[in-house]
Design goal:
Rossmann fold; alpha/beta
């Protein structure tokens, strides 16, 4: 079988799709809201209404589209789909190939501020020797890697697909990888299933089972995690349950109503970012709406739920055996969960553990300078031991 040849790609949402979006936003039917609820019961109506009005009347999709198209983008036929990816060359004496993998409800847009800091660190006051050549694929079934009725991919299949992309299609014998959200699972599986190709992995969410037993004598870190896990499982997993059990039912409303889609996605950005109650101070409306518009224009929301279904109905995807690939973990304070190091060490060869000063689940979007710095420091260790 011949190796697929990547074809240059540019994002272009048709005027018809944008006109239809405007019309649907104009006809939004608004629910009531419990007085004084704020964000406690889900997306705040006042915020969503203002966001929808901005989306309808002021948001400039073409300007955001042009920002995406400033990156070198491609599509390649792999695994029965057309896989979209950014492939941005590094500017330095020996750029290290680096795979960036995001999760839900995000997109490659999450990396738009991070990628230049990685490929051209000198531009941001860094050392050209820390430069990376970045490959940022769109997860199969997500936004620009989606077509209706295409095959579904669980995190194992995603890992194998990205291994093919990096080694067979792009020709990198070895590379480093970063993962957030589902990307953390994908990257950990890459290290498990393709260890010879991985120089090291960098994670911002530790993919460890939530049903691991706690020790009989609890440390302070154990107690914090126990409280955090109890709150997470009680208050924050409603989306996970519906996306993992009856995703098709939810997909009708989110595919039909852009306001509904925006409310579903923005609640996660409000809950999971380090925003101190001011989401726009952390991720502005243009950035939020660029990500949401990618989901809307491609109609990919239903397909994006698939990893949630498989994680509930298939065996746990990661092995019990320890992953020996050098692993870095960046612990951002507003990440959804923070397993203690003692929970992670049996499963990962942790060579770097960093308590970050600020940032949350979408750290590459929230604090790209901190993320770039941690990646450079970790991969500096890898380069030194090459």
């Amino acid at each position: 079988m011949s190796t697929p040849t990547p074809q240059p790609f540019q994002v272009h949402v048709s005027d018809d799709v944008l006109d239809d979006l405007h019309e649907r936003l104009t006809r939004t039917r608004w629910p009531d809201e419990v007085p004084g609820a704020g964000w406690r019961l889900g997306s705040n109506r006042g915020f969503v209404r203002r966001m929808v009005e901005y989306w309808r009347d002021e948001f400039d999709w073409r300007a955001q589209e042009a920002k995406l198209n400033a990156f070198s983008q491609y599509r390649a036929p792999l695994g029965g789909i057309d896989l979209h990816f950014i492939h941005e060359p590094g500017l330095g004496p020996d750029p290290l190939p680096l795979l960036l993998v995001n999760g839900w409800p995000s997109s490659v847009w999450e990396f738009h501020e991070l990628i230049p800091r990685l490929t051209d660190p000198a531009r941001f006051g860094g050392d050209p020797a820390d430069a990376f050549t970045v490959v940022a694929p769109t997860l199969p079934g997500y936004t620009l890697s989606f077509e209706p009725n295409q095959p579904r991919f669980d995190v194992i299949a995603m890992a194998d697909l990205f291994a093919d992309l990096m080694t067979d299609v792009l020709g990198y014998k070895t590379f480093a990888a970063h993962g957030s959200d589902w990307g953390s699972y994908v990257v950990a599986l890459l290290a498990t299933r393709h260890p010879d190709a991985l120089r090291g992995i960098h994670l911002t969410l530790l993919p460890v089972r939530q049903d691991l037993p706690f020790p009989s004598e609890l440390s302070d870190a154990d107690r914090r995690y126990q409280r955090e896990l109890q709150y997470w499982q009680t208050e924050e997993t409603g989306y996970h349950a519906i996306q993992g059990t009856k995703p098709q039912t939810l997909a009708y409303s989110l595919t039909d109503s852009p306001a509904g889609l925006a409310a579903w996605i923005v609640e996660k950005f409000h809950t999971w970012t380090d925003n101190n109650g001011d989401l726009e101070g952390t991720v502005d409306l243009d950035s939020l709406l660029t990500n949401i518009t990618l989901h809307w224009a491609t109609g990919a929301i239903n397909s994006s739920f698939w990893p949630y279904y498989t994680i509930r109905h298939d065996p746990w995807p990661l092995p019990d055996a320890r992953i020996e690939t050098p692993t870095a973990y960046a612990s951002f304070p507003r990440e959804t969960r923070h397993p203690p190091r003692t929970f992670a060490e049996p499963f990962f060869n942790l060579v770097r553990w960093t308590e970050m000063e600020r940032g949350g689940h979408f750290a590459a979007l929230e604090v790209p300078d901190l993320m770039a710095g941690d990646l450079a420091a970790f991969c500096g260790q890898l380069r030194a031991h090459a």
